[in-house]
């Protein structure tokens, strides 16, 4: 399957999971430090908005960063987490549609144009669907409904694990991770930053 298919499948899973939890559940804390379910939904909404900025950058050649700053990103999420759950549910659906539609306008040439992610990595626009797929699959699990990593397709899990391991290796944690994953070390290494 393509990253576009992964994005569509992940979006469907996230929205179905969201439909399966009530508003009271969204106000409860999640496993993510300091975040409720409403924070997760707000983040997924603003992630789509931010990725639309990258699509515009790829389409026009005019730099358009995902976020002005980490502080601006945090303020947006904190503000949106105070909105009524019904409004958040509508916003996350609308921004998901906007992103899918925006990606549909890219030509073969503009898919190759480079943009910069929120982490400062320069990537071709063709990586945007994977950036989104990763977010919606992982955060569908974070919503704390009936969805678990068992619901994520094997090919997406393989790509996600490759992505996570690559980041951990770049952070100098490859040796401890390899020791644990190969069964040579019994205690798991400390967890890295969450997505």
Highlighted features:
195 residues, mainly alpha, Four Helix Bundle (Hemerythrin (Met), subunit A), two-stranded antiparallel ribbon, 59% helix, 3% strand
Describe what you observe in this structure.
The protein has 195 residues and is mainly α. It has a single domain, classed as Up-down Bundle (Four Helix Bundle (Hemerythrin (Met), subunit A)), CATH 1.20.120. The chain is 59% helix and 3% strand. It is built from eight helices and two strands; from the N terminus they run αααααββααα. The chain has helices at residues 3-19, 23-26, 37-60, 70-80, 85-103, 128-142, 154-170, 174-181, and strands at residues 114-116, 122-124. Helix 1 runs parallel beside helix 6 (128-142), helix 3 (37-60) packs across helix 4 (70-80) and helix 3 (37-60) packs parallel to helix 5 (85-103).
Largest beta sheet, briefly?
2 strands, antiparallel
What is the count of distinct domains? Answer: 1
CATH class: Mainly Alpha
Strand-and-helix sequence, N→C? HHHHHEEHHH
Strand content: under 5%
* Range of helix content: 55-70%
Number of helices: 8
Q: Would you tell me which CATH topology applies? A: Four Helix Bundle (Hemerythrin (Met), subunit A)
**Spatial order of the strands in the main sheet?**
1-2
Give me the secondary-structure category: mainly alpha
For this entry, what is the oligomeric state of its chains? single chain
Identify the overall geometry.
globular
| Rg (C-alpha, Å) | 17 Å
CATH architecture: Up-down Bundle
Q: What would the average pLDDT be, to the nearest integer?
A: 95
């Amino acid at each position: 399957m393509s990253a576009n298919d992964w994005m569509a499948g992940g979006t469907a899973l996230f929205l179905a999971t969201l439909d399966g939890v009530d508003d009271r559940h969204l106000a409860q804390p999640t496993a993510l430090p300091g975040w409720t379910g409403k924070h997760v939904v707000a983040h997924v909404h603003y992630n789509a908005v931010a990725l639309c900025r990258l699509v515009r950058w790829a389409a026009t050649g005019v730099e358009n960063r995902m976020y002005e700053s980490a502080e601006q990103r945090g303020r947006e999420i904190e503000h949106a987490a105070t909105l009524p759950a019904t409004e958040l549910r509508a916003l996350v659906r609308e921004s998901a549609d906007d992103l899918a539609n925006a990606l549909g306008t890219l030509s073969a040439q503009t898919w190759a144009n480079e943009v910069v992610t929120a982490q400062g990595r320069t990537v071709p626009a063709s990586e945007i669907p994977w950036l989104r797929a990763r977010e919606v699959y992982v955060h569908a699990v974070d919503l704390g409904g009936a969805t678990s990593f068992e619901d994520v397709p094997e090919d997406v899990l393989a790509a996600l694990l490759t992505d996570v391991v690559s980041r951990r290796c770049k952070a100098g944690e490859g040796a401890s991770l390899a020791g644990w994953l190969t069964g040579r070390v019994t205690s798991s290494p400390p967890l890295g930053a969450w997505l």
